[in-house]
Amino acid sequence: MGSIYQGPPSLLQDLKVTVHKSSLVFPSQETEKRTLFLSNIDQVLNFDVETIHFFSSHKDFSPKIVADKLKNTLAKILVPYDFFAGRLKLNPETSRLEIDCNAAGAGFVVASSEYTLDEIGDLVYPNPAFAQLVCKTSNFLKPGDQPLCIFQLTSFKCGGFAMGLSVNHTTLDGLSFKLFLNNLAALGHNKPLAVTLSHDRHLLASRLPPHVTFPHPELVQLKIPINKDSNPRLCSHPRRPCLQYFPADLGQHQQP
């Protein structure tokens, strides 16, 4: 038996979001000035990934308390995740992208919506209006000085809030991003990092110079000697493809 088609739910087209403050957050401690190598995979996956995380209201966490705590926690986690506060740059010698861990800061935006979470409705269905909950670029910065990570905290009239993140994929993949959120929550509770990660991308680098570690018989060029008993069609090199024209008169082949 078939099922009755249910169309998409009624969605708000405008969440009426107002941005109150945009700023940069810097590491809470001095970090090492270094350059982070990016693998060939990272060279290709150079784009921003946007995620939104909704939280219901809590009597002990007003929007201001949440904003202050998240901002302080972000400053703490920028110490072990120093590349989040860095900037992408092009190495002129290798023509490869790298992350300059220069502590230039991560983006932090505080905003509010005129709706409650209940008025927004289904939070799972992909609503195009949710794009208002993620800050894609920092308009107060130069185009070449864009953060690799931007947090936007949007509070709602009910006391709930949404945490929208825009993270460049060169910094983390999906699994590493999940572990990053676990570490962010741990530091927010004044606990040590939940998972200690290795940020050395040379583990994914290609060999320099390249070298073969095992035989590849499929690439071996066979040298077959040609003698008088050899079939020239089997031993000769294939001819280059060509196009030839032959004159023909179809009238001569017509049957009476």
The helix fraction, in percent, is: 10-25%
Mean pLDDT, as a whole number? 85
Largest sheet: 5 strands, mixed
Q: Going across the major beta sheet, what is the strand order?
A: 1-6-7-8-3
> Assembly type of the shown chains?
single chain
Form type: extended
Question: What do these coordinates show?
Answer:
With 256 residues, this protein is of the alpha+beta class. The protein has a single domain (17-204), classed as Chloramphenicol acetyltransferase-like domain (Chloramphenicol Acetyltransferase, 2-Layer Sandwich), CATH 3.30.559.10. Helix content is 17%, strand content 21%. The protein has five helices and eight strands. The strands form two sheets. A five-stranded mixed sheet has the order 1-6-7-8-3, covered by helices on one side. A hairpin with a 4-residue loop joins strand 4 and strand 5. Helix 2 (63-77) crosses helix 4 (174-188). The chain is extended, with a radius of gyration of 30 Å.
Can you tag this structure with a few keywords?
Chloramphenicol Acetyltransferase; 17% helix; CAT-like_dom_sf; alpha+beta; three-stranded antiparallel sheet; 256 residues; extended; five-stranded mixed sheet; 8 strands; 21% strand
Provide a quick synopsis of the model.
The chain is of the alpha+beta class and 256 residues long. It is 17% helix and 21% strand.
What's the topology here?
Layout: E1 17-25, E2 34-37, H1 40-44, E3 48-55, H2 63-77, E4 87-91, E5 96-101, E6 106-113, H3 117-120, E7 149-155, E8 161-168, H4 174-188, H5 232-235
Parallel strand pairs: 6-7
Antiparallel strand pairs: 1-6, 2-5, 3-8, 4-5, 7-8
